[in-house]
Design goal:
The chain is built from 16 helices and four strands. With about 425 residues, it is mostly helical. The protein has two domains: about 325 residues, M75 peptidase, HXXE motif (A middle domain of Talin 1), CATH 1.20.1420; about 60 residues, no CATH class. Helix 1 runs parallel beside helix 11 and helix 12 runs antiparallel to helix 13. The chain starts with a helix and ends in an 8-residue tail after the last helix.
């Protein structure tokens, strides 16, 4: 399933290159804007619907794992998780600039997380306490009552109410109790390999009804089940927000403000989030804990599909998981009508960025994982990651010129990793 999705997306990107090279006939600016915003909303709705569909497939695989734990059912659940990341990572370009999405996003994709809140950890690698997080090693799966800050929390029943209470409990963002990465940890376990080869290797017997390893297999299964159900519900909720009567879709009627949101999404994801927090920070620290999908070693795919998402929005084309295509007028037409040379430059920069993350993806699938690439002393791997950071930074500079050409005011998110690297790692 994952290979099919990937092939469809890559084919869609190739079609995108052909589509946006076609000259655009002159049209009234307001009509072009309205058409571009409709395409933007249609693509968002389709991506969140696909994210919901693949999350339901993940839920089915998780149910099979819980019903009959085995090496095979654990492997199938992991594969379903990886497949579910493909459409979701393309959705992140809608987070920045759309308040409805940004306020919700932490429930499904918050990271990094202090996994000791959820389940057992190797204290030798993870540590036993944190000055910032009193629940650093709370292990809710093993403990039915949690005490912190003079308070007591009843965790005897693992249900959606408990996970909502635990999520960012105490105002600590690293207390991630739900979403893709909590599920990822429950499927893979900790990656104890540092910058060496290998991902997390949780045994299937952690879910066994007989011969349970590491204790509390029933509560672990319940946690995984509830977290997956919440993921499905959260994604279905967001898909509805982009339907005709949804809050996110209605916000697109704001004209230039909505166009600004489109640009904000590409620029902020490109620069501050992906180039900065997700890539440069880990490279500066040579720290595998700073990679996005750190338990599964799937980070190369997450980065790649983030960039595909940028292409979707700029070019106005998205290839769905079933192979169908959603497309229409988009930012490329708006920019071309005002500054055709700048549009060509922007498309070229996006293509260069896609090539750079594709090179990371290819290396990860044939030679070494992303956490190895950012390891200290890995000259080739470091250079490949830095090249992608440079391309992301470069395309953001061109996007700033796009904003100026469209006579809009847009601010992109920054990152200390890029803007003040001397501060990184210092308290």
């Amino acid at each position: 399933m994952f290979r099919l999705i990937a092939a469809n997306v890559i084919a869609g990107v190739l079609l995108l290159g052909l589509l946006i090279a076609i000259p655009v006939q002159a049209a009234e600016p307001d009509k072009v804007k309205a058409a571009a915003l409709k395409t933007y909303g249609d693509i968002a709705q389709a991506i969140y619907e696909d994210s919901t569909t693949t999350a339901r497939a993940l839920q089915k695989a998780v149910q099979a794992l819980i019903a009959k734990p085995s090496e095979a059912t654990l492997k199938a659940a992991r594969e379903a998780w990886i497949a579910a990341r493909v459409p979701y990572q393309q959705s992140e370009v809608f987070r920045f600039g759309n308040p409805v999405v940004d306020a919700w996003e932490g429930r499904v994709n918050a990271w990094p997380l202090d996994e000791g809140l959820i389940d057992y950890v190797d204290s030798g690698k993870y540590g036993e306490e944190s000055d910032e997080n009193p629940l650093y090693t709370a292990n809710v799966i093993a403990n039915k009552k949690l005490k912190f800050g003079g308070k007591s929390l009843d965790a005897s029943r693992i249900d959606w109410k408990l996970l909502r209470k635990l999520h960012e409990v105490g105002g600590v963002e690293a207390n991630v109790a739900s979403g893709y990465h909590a599920i990822e940890f429950l499927l893979w376990g900790q990656d104890l390999n540092g910058t060496g080869p290998g991902a997390g290797n949780r045994p299937w017997t952690d879910y066994a009804k007989q011969g349970c390893t590491n204790g509390n297999c029933d509560r672990r299964a319940q946690y995984l089940s509830v977290a997956t159900q919440l993921l499905v519900e959260d994604l279905a909720f967001m898909a509805k927000q982009w339907s005709a009567e949804g809050a996110a879709r209605k916000a697109l009627k704001s004209g230039d403000n909505a166009i600004s949101a489109m640009l904000t999404g590409i620029g902020s994801l490109s620069y501050g989030e992906l180039a900065g927090e997700r890539m440069k920070l880990g490279l500066l620290l040579h720290d595998p804990e700073e990679e996005h999908d750190c338990f599964s070693d799937n980070t190369h795919n997450s980065h790649y599909y983030n960039v595909v998402g940028m292409l979707n929005v700029y070019g106005g084309e998205y290839t769905r998981v079933n192979g169908s295509v959603v497309k229409g007028p988009a930012l490329t037409q708006l920019v071309r009508a005002t500054a055709p040379d700048l549009d060509a430059e922007m498309r070229g920069k996006l293509k260069a960025t896609l090539d750079s993350v594709a090179a990371i993806k290819q290396r990860a699938e044939s030679r070494e994982a992303y956490d190895q690439m950012i390891g200290e002393g890995n000259t080739e791997g470091n250079a490949l990651v830095q090249a992608a950071i440079d391309r992301l930074t470069d395309q953001t500079k061109t996007l700033e010129r796009v904003v100026a050409a469209l006579k809009l005011k847009v601010t992109f998110e920054g990152s200390d990793s890029l803007d003040a690297p001397d501060k990184v790692g210092k308290k």
